[in-house]
């Protein structure tokens, strides 16, 4: 499996960037009242308490931008109405909100209530005239939006078709990750990928249940008939127990790219893995793996081995034979331990005692060192308390640079290995991998209409944005291109612990961090040349500009964020805010 490197375009870097300067210049904020009812915001159900549930609800951006018209964005209110929020860049003020469609409510046995496992609505625009809506329960809707570029248009969206996300699944509650329109052999094809947080019940009573993200890859295809009917099919089912940081189809949708911190498996691969595991029979737990009848601890000088005392056993029932390199422990004709030790011990100093319900055996090492294993054949239990601790490589570590202290953003996530993987539908396997270390992508955004979403990674203190590179002549090759850079933004973002949404302008003129309640932070890296200030024997210093906008408590929680060339649109519980940048 090829490993792809992130190759930084050094022409996009700014080595003389010297940070952001807080600006006290006011940012004009226009507040627009909601058209009718407040935005529809669903909270997790009582049994939706896992980390995956928290991410699916907490990270959900309820304001969907139109990639073809960035000044337009949409949200769904409590009346199931899709509402358009539009900003007039020439007049410098928002247009009146209007309803473009009302989603038909269906009774799914809950009395027309979108509750009991339902997720929030998700919108995805796939072209200048098509839009896909996921109702957060079990359905997709495909709309013909008409000409959205006409500001004076009052036409409503036309429903073309609707379908169940996965007819063979009883899952309730989906979130739409990505949707893409392609024309394959003169036929329109819309690829869709939705996720549902599932729960896998453990066969053992002493093990917790496992939550996982169940992903359904579906596809709408327009049939070459006079009616232009759309047919839907499920192409693949995937799942992972990790978080989904990024998900986007590549052009032609023959592959999909994920960023996650766990393995990604197909339905057949997961079934094969489950079949290889013992399962509970007749309500009794099956031992998953043989547990050694002893535990052991060590220091640099000695090793202490503890054996649980069998019922009715006494001191005279044990038979212990010990040499400098071999150890055998027998009790009641049962061999508890027999093998060559990892290193030599001083057999004259070997002692053993009976304490409470265990036998304690003490070995004194001939050489002061740490043993990775008790036995030389690499078998048996690891030292107690060190089962999951990887050993450091036996080599000299580099001397740290004490002039650059470690920051919180340098540490990443503990015990996490984040990867970006490309899953190919034809091969039914992962074909390419990018290792991102312990730091997941900082955020994802749409830079160009019709292109896969870009993702931002940390490169030093900067945030680098990357786009997939599609090569039709070489479908087996895949890579990503360094599209742009946000100077020092990775360092800035890591310090904002209350951040809820992060995004940037399509031309990378600014980046924005939005907190849940009070503050919106705007960063413009191309702002000031510091009055001609230069570093000693170096180029002219560049300083960025930072704005902090405080949001009134009266508008409620921030629910969505959208960025355009000269305006930032923010959806709250009680109003829509337009920040003129």
From TrEMBL:
Q: What's the domain of life for this entry?
A: Eukaryota
The residues the entry assigns to the signal sequence are: none
Q: Which residues form a coiled coil?
A: none
CS domain location: 289-375
Cell location = Cytoplasm; Nucleus
PROSITE patterns named in the record: CS
Keywords per UniProt: Cytoplasm, Nucleus
Report the GO terms under cellular component: cytoplasm; nucleus
Kindly give the Pfam families that the UniProt entry links to this protein.
CS
Q: Which InterPro entries match?
A: CS_dom, HSP20-like_chaperone, NUDCD1
Q: What protein does this entry describe?
A: NudC domain-containing protein 1
**Organism listed in the record:** Drosophila pseudoobscura pseudoobscura (Fruit fly)
